């Protein structure tokens, strides 16, 4: 009897989890489906779900009009570059806060997070003017630096949380064995924190990939990533939803695939230390 | 002979060097609409003629507006040509942010530009943006539903006729609504429509001393008429509808009439997208007999930011894209129905273009709008559906939210007007008017 209740509960839980998952994923699924419809089918009422004449005409139109590979390459460099640069700065910072805390460590952590509380548009002009002076407008270098700075508080916070879970005694033992600071971080701490670093890396790649304020405002023709690619298909005067959906699907496909294959690392990293 | 060869080689070298020395790469910011996308497809023709390459930055209209405003006000120099509208042109020209376009040459024939367009894109008599295409607003209506209602649409109807027809065409059980109008809040959304409609009712944004006029009887008449009409004969959730939502409803046969941009005519008559393509008629935007119609006037135009290093090449592009020859180029490849409309007089004298079904009504709508004298009483601003001052976009968006809330039934028209009056007065005082 007890066994059947457990099974039923498991089934219910599974169904509930699937329902919630589908609900969350539905907008993306609908975008993907719409990308294979004609413009007329895309706005039809009642909407058509699966039974329509699937077409690739939107993808052909997008491919003909835009240089997708250039936008993709820019996204890869900007998202990847900003995340790696952020990790290089954040790992030593998180190490010092986790293992050599001072009286002000908590204040510094909070202060770092406070930079996320300012609306981005509030600093648009200062940053724009700095970029003009430094010749960084419409460059991948400029965006790598800006996105790194924006995501740095999150990277430091995530790594700090993971590092706090690692017993300090292990690092002490490494020091007793004569490890230098660099060796301690590189060969002892980092390998132990790999799940945490991996999930931090993945989450920040996703955040940088989807960042749409700075990537739209600081680029023109050369460094524009996939967010600008999507924006070029949105139109307030014209129903081009199928083409917009095709462009959106092409823009999210790489990050969706990356997320799919690394979901194990993402979940294990995000739940790291959740159960003590 | 060897001398001749040497001469030929020197000439070839000179041509090569001079071409490469003057060949530029222009960066052009533009909006994502059909005519602009079509222009991108013809870029090769420009490059073949001039040697200049073009890089396009295509963005959604609101994103583009923010992007180019940031760049030009900070003197970022990211764009050699910007696509801007009638609202920005006089403001930016006054700030000396734009290169004057009064020297495009005789062959360009600037006198051929429709006076309403040239007027809206000029500052103190000098053209600062060349119109690529122009639009007004007009009535698009279902001829079959109008006939079934036993009524006949005149070419120039009144608002009373439109309201009567809308109520007669409405059959809510069959999801057919007599009239679809903009209700979504925004200075370019419901406020474009309501400001233009207000003109027909004698309403104005400001008097000659820049005092807001929302406490006038004309505004009360405008807003009450609009809300009552949409409540009786509009689709549900009208306060969320903008151009695209109404286009979708009309194409699916759910609107008896739709008053919106003339550019919509080509969409609703396209049988690939519209289920009512063969049942659409056109009429001028309505009036109330006071001497002004409810149509607006807009142009997407090409402007060159002051300080660009490529001014000469940029002017060559502007000349090419807004010339008579470009119109002929598009007509030859994509047909006369797809040429950019509303910019040049000569287009409407062209016999081929006269056969396009919505050409006549588009021209008459454009000609009947006067940006310098938009409503019955005199006003201190330029613009038919806006006032070309920098503060307008922010104020009108807030006013639009109040009017949209009134349409949604969250407050009365009187309450919305009182709030509009108060917030406009505050903002204008803060701005030093």
From TrEMBL, chain A:
CDD domains: TM_PBP2 (cd06261). It is found in: Cell membrane. It is a multi-pass membrane protein. Residues 72-262 form the ABC transmembrane type-1 domain. It comes from the Bacteria. GO terms for biological process: transmembrane transport. PROSITE patterns: ABC_TM1. GO terms for cellular component: plasma membrane. Pfam families: BPD_transp_1. InterPro entries: BP-dep_ABC_trans_perm, MetI-like, MetI-like_sf. Keywords: Cell membrane, Membrane, Transmembrane, Transmembrane helix, Transport. Gene3D superfamilies: MetI-like. The keyword Plastid does not apply. The chain crosses the membrane at residues 12-33, 71-96, 108-131, 143-163, 184-209, 240-261. Belongs to the binding-protein-dependent transport system permease family. PANTHER family: INNER MEMBRANE ABC TRANSPORTER PERMEASE PROTEIN YCJP, MALTOSE TRANSPORT SYSTEM PERMEASE-RELATED. This is Sorbitol ABC transporter membrane protein /mannitol ABC transporter membrane protein. It comes from Sulfitobacter brevis. The lineage of its organism: Bacteria, Pseudomonadati, Pseudomonadota, Alphaproteobacteria, Rhodobacterales.
Automatic annotation (TrEMBL), chain B:
GO terms for cellular component: periplasmic space. The keyword Signal applies. CDD domains: PBP2_TMBP_like. Pfam families: SBP_bac_1 (PF01547). Residues 1-23 form the signal peptide. It is found in: Periplasm. InterPro entries: Bact_solute-bd_prot1 (IPR050490), SBP (IPR006059). Gene3D superfamilies: Periplasmic binding protein-like II. Keywords: Signal. Its main location: periplasm. Transmembrane segments: none annotated. The keyword S-adenosyl-L-methionine does not apply. Belongs to the bacterial solute-binding protein 1 family. This is Sorbitol-binding protein/mannitol-binding protein.
């Amino acid at each position: 009897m007890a066994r059947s209740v457990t099974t039923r509960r498991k089934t219910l839980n599974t169904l509930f989890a699937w329902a919630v998952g589908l609900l969350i994923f539905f907008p993306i699924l609908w975008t993907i489906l719409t990308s294979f419809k004609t413009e007329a089918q895309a706005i039809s009422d009642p909407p058509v779900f699966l039974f329509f004449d699937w077409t690739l005409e939107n993808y052909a139109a997008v491919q003909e009009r835009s240089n997708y590979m250039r936008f993709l390459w820019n996204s890869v460099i900007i998202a990847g570059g900003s995340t790696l640069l952020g990790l290089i700065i954040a790992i030593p910072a998180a190490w010092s806060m986790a293992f050599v805390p001072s009286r002000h460590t908590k204040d510094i952590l909070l202060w770092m997070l406070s930079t996320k509380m300012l609306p981005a548009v509030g600093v648009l002009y200062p940053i724009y003017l700095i970029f003009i002076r430094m010749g960084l407008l419409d460059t991948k270098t400029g965006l790598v630096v800006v996105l790194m700075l924006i995501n740095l508080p999150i990277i430091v916070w995530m790594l700090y949380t993971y590092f706090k879970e690692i017993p300090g005694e292990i690092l002490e033992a490494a020091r007793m064995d004569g490890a230098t600071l660099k060796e301690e971080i590189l060969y002892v701490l980092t390998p132990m924190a790999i799940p945490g670093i991996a999930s931090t890396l993945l989450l920040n790649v996703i955040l940088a990939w989807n960042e749409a304020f700075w990537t739209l405002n600081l680029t023109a023709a050369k460094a524009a990533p996939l967010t600008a690619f999507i924006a070029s298909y949105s139109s307030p005067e014209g129903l081009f939803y199928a083409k917009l959906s095709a462009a959106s699907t092409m823009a999210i496909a790489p990050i969706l695939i990356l997320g799919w294959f690394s979901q194990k690392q993402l979940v294990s990293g995000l739940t790291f230390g959740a159960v003590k | 002979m060897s001398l001749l060869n040497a001469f030929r080689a020197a000439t070839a070298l000179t041509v090569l060097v001079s071409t490469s020395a003057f060949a530029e790469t222009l960066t052009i910011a533009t909006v994502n609409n059909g005519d602009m996308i079509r222009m991108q497809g013809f870029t090769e023709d420009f490059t073949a003629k001039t040697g200049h390459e073009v890089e396009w930055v295509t963005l959604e209209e609101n994103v583009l507006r923010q992007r180019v405003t940031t760049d030009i006000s900070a003197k970022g120099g990211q764009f050699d040509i910007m696509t801007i509208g009638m609202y920005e042109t006089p403001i930016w020209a006054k700030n000396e942010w734009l290169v004057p376009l009064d020297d495009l040459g005789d062959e360009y024939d600037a006198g051929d530009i429709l006076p309403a367009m040239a007027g809206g894109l000029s500052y103190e008599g000098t053209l600062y943006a060349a119109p690529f295409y122009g639009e007004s607003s007009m009535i698009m209506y279902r001829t079959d539903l109008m006939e079934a209602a036993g009524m006949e649409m005149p070419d120039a109807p009144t608002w009373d006729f439109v309201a009567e027809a809308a109520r007669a065409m409405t059959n809510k059980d069959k999801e057919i609504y007599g009239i679809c109008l903009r209700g979504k809040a925004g200075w370019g959304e419901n406020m474009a429509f309501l400001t233009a409609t207000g003109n027909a009712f004698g309403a104005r944004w400001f008097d000659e001393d820049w005092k807001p006029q929302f406490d006038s009887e004309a505004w009360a008449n405008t807003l009450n008429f609009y809300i009552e009409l949409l409540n009786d004969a509009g689709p549900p959730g009208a306060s969320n509808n903008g151009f695209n939502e109404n286009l979708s409803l009309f194409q699916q046969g759910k609107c008896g009439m739709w008053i919106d941009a003339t550019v919509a005519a080509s969409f609703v008559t396209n049988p690939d997208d519209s289920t009512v393509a063969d049942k659409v008629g056109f009429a001028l935007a309505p009036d109330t007999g006071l001497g002004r119609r409810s149509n607006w006037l807009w142009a997407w135009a090409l402007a060159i930011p002051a300080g660009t290093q490529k001014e000469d090449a940029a002017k060559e592009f502007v000349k090419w894209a807004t010339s008579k020859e470009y119109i002929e180029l598009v007509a030859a490849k994509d047909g006369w129905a797809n040429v950019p409309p509303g910019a040049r007089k000569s287009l409407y004298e062209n016999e081929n273009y006269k056969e396009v079904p919505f050409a006549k009504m588009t021209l008459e709508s454009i000609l009947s709008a006067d940006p310098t004298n938009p409503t019955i009483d005199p006003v201190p601003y330029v613009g038919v559906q806006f006032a070309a001052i920098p503060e307008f976009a922010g104020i009108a968006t807030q006013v639009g939210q109040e009017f949209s809330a009134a349409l949604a039934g969250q407050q009365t028209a009187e309450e919305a007007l009182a709030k509009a009056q108060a917030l406009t007065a505050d903002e204008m005082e803060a701005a030093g008017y």
